[in-house]
Amino acid sequence: MTTDNDNHIVPSPYARAARDAGLDIIAWSLERSGPLTNGGGWYYQSVQPVINNDGDTFSLLDVLARDVGVIGVFSDWPATTTFYANCQKTLRGKRRAQP
């Protein structure tokens, strides 16, 4: 992951190349650093300028899922990935239900 000129979290060139090559990508480890109020530490160094609260975990996870297309994410605290997956499942169901 990296950031763009507008300080949004975006896939790194490496992640894009892996996705474009058709590789199945599994990310590791989403919540190894603990609270993100101080930038997330080593594991978040490539996006540290835009990380400042625990909600940023969901921003990162959303980019991994939607933009990179990971097939899985290992996490030291699986409640976050489960919550995200359940929210996406609910949203997909609501999008289909609308005329």
Counting helices, strands and paired strands, the structural category is mainly alpha
Mean pLDDT: 87
Tell the overall outline: globular
Strand content: 5-15%
Helicity, in percent? 40-55%
- The whole-angstrom Rg is 14 Å
Number of strands: 4
The first-to-last residue Cα distance is 36 Å
Helical stretch tally? 3
Low-confidence runs of at least 5 consecutive residues: none
Summarize the helix and strand pattern as letters. Answer: EEHEHEH
Main sheet makeup: 2 strands, antiparallel
- Reading side by side through the largest sheet, how are the strands ordered? 1-2
Walkthrough of the structure:
The longest helix has 19 residues, at 79-97. The protein has three helices and four strands, in the order ββαβαβα. It has 99 residues and is mostly helical. The chain has helices at residues 13-20, 56-68, 79-97, and strands at residues 2-3, 9-10, 26-27, 72-73. 40% of the residues lie in helices and 8% in strands. It is globular, with a radius of gyration of 14 Å. The protein has a two-stranded antiparallel ribbon with strand order 1-2. Strands 3-4 form a two-stranded parallel sheet. A hairpin with a 5-residue loop joins strand 1 (2-3) and strand 2 (9-10).
